[in-house]
Write a structure and sequence with these properties.
Order of helices and strands: HEEEEHEEEEEEE
Radius of gyration: 16 Å
Structural class: mainly beta
Strand content: over 45%
Length: 187
């Protein structure tokens, strides 16, 4: 229980830092994952959106110049700044370290355990699909692989320094049935 509280506090602090960097204020504006834009990219694995705006962090495969996957950093994140005419922007060092960065560990040939720095308790898995032999990002739910598509973080009130994360939605697809699944983590 204490570990969960520490992790939640770290997540909240991370989002506060990002707020400071983006100079925005949290407001309840009716956004959810169904009303926000869906980015497109050929190497995109999943994307993350949150209140208060449509700006989106896109997580893509990270390749070497020879086209091979970077073993020490197989995923990179970057912004699509919809509020700034869809401008692409790299994550800052602070954003990578405290909020939107990725930790990766090679666990088998062409398979990695992936964790978001702001929410380390949920492992994700980067591996090649048996169907198309392409890399995808998966989460586990009751022993099943779910193909992660998008993450939405709902912020409901709080202050500038301590926003209140109400929940995190993980929108995934069942790898076997193709059925879309919403998994909600209440904080």
């Amino acid at each position: 229980m204490v570990l969960a509280q520490v992790l939640l506090q770290r997540l909240l602090i991370s989002f506060t830092i990002i707020l400071l960097l983006n100079q925005t204020s949290y407001s309840q504006n009716g956004m959810d994952h169904t009303t926000l834009p869906t980015p497109k990219s050929c190497n995109m694995l999943f994307f993350l959106q949150r209140d208060p705006d449509a700006n989106t962090v896109v997580y893509e495969l990270n390749f070497n110049s020879d086209g091979t996957l970077k073993k020490n950093a197989p995923i990179k994140g970057s912004w699509i700044r919809y509020e700034e005419k869809q401008k692409f922007k790299e994550l800052t060092a602070i954003e990578q370290k405290f909020a939107y960065g990725i930790l990766s560990k090679l666990i088998a040939d062409d398979e990695y355990e992936i964790r978001l720095v702001a929410y380390k308790k949920m492992p994700m898995y980067l591996k090649k699909s048996e169907t198309d032999q392409k890399y995808h990002i998966y989460i586990k739910d009751e022993g099943k692989d779910l193909l992660l598509k998008r993450v939405f973080v709902r912020v409901n009130g709080g202050s500038f320094w301590f926003p209140k994360v109400q929940y995190i939605d993980l929108i995934a697809t069942n790898s076997i049935t193709g059925m879309e699944i919403l998994k909600r983590i209440k904080t």
